[in-house]
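step=encode ok
step=design start
structure_in=
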């Protein structure tokens, strides 16, 4: 009887832990700093260089980007537009979705709003979680998006990761991946790669809600104004009351 009770208690205690691992696994927390303009500019550059060939961002206009990211029209046209488009146009590409479906199995979705639909934590984890898997058509799989149909387009920069499995003695059952380990170095160190992903995700977060950036900026001026007002009111109060005893 005691053994049963102990087993029941152990199971009870273990349950929440197990579900937590299953549901939230491998998605890391990621904090964005939208008012980091340099990071946004780098993110935009990485985005047009590495993502725009397959994914569009058709609700984002280049001119808006220029304005929000502190770039001139000329800088945007020279450094960010590779599609022969004009600055007033939206960020689209020439890929037809029927072709894309044939090539990849799934058409690459538009990414304008992806930071809202997936969340920044998920995006940050997704871009860092590709691993080598010879069983997949592109030779890679993804920890947070199992059997994804996107090739690891940043593999040259990140290198190749292999899965390290949890050691368990359940035998026979499918093995569970514990974490990934870099086995083929890429052109970047892992710190550099993580920073690049940070910039990319920060840019995607901005793109999903450009007004947030404006709110942040207006908010800072409002705070500054209130502080100045506070000082002035205090001085005024002292002036008015100085002869009252
Ligand atoms: C060679 C084409 C290609 C390139 C380049 C590419 N992707 Fe993808 N991507 C895809 C395909 C195809 C899918 C659909 C995968 C699926 O549904 O299985 C996808 C899916 C995604 C998704 C999942 C979207 C969702 O909500 O389901 C995200 C996020 C994403 N890509 C981000 C990026 C980023 C960021 C870049 C640039 C660093 C990039 N992709 C570059 C082909 C590409």
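sequence_out=
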């Amino acid at each position: 009887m005691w053994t049963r009770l102990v087993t029941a208690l152990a199971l009870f205690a273990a349950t929440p832990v197990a579900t937590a691992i299953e549901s939230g696994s491998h998605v890391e927390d990621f904090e964005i700093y939208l008012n980091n303009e340099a990071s946004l500019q780098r993110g935009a550059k990485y985005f047009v260089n590495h993502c725009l060939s397959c994914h569009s961002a058709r609700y984002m206009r280049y001119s808006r980007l220029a304005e929000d990211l502190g770039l001139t029209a000329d800088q945007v046209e020279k450094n960010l537009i590779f599609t022969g488009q004009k600055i007033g146009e939206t960020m689209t590409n020439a890929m037809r979705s029927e072709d894309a479906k044939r090539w990849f199995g799934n058409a690459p979705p538009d990414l304008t709003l992806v930071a809202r639909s997936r969340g920044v934590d998920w995006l940050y984890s997704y871009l860092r979680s590709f691993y080598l898997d010879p069983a997949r058509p592109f030779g890679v799989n993804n920890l947070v998006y199992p059997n994804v149909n996107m090739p690891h387009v940043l593999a040259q920069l990140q290198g190749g990761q292999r899965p390290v499995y949890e050691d368990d003695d359940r035998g026979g059952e499918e093995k569970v991946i514990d974490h990934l380990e870099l086995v083929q170095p890429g052109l970047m160190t892992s710190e550099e790669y993580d920073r690049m992903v940070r910039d990319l995700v920060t840019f995607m977060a901005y793109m999903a809600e450009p007004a947030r950036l404006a709110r942040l900026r207006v908010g800072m001026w409002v705070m500054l104004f209130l502080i100045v007002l506070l000082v002035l009111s205090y001085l005024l109060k002292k002036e008015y009351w100085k002869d009252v005893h």
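step=design ok
step=annotate ok -> The chain is about 50% helix and 10% strand.
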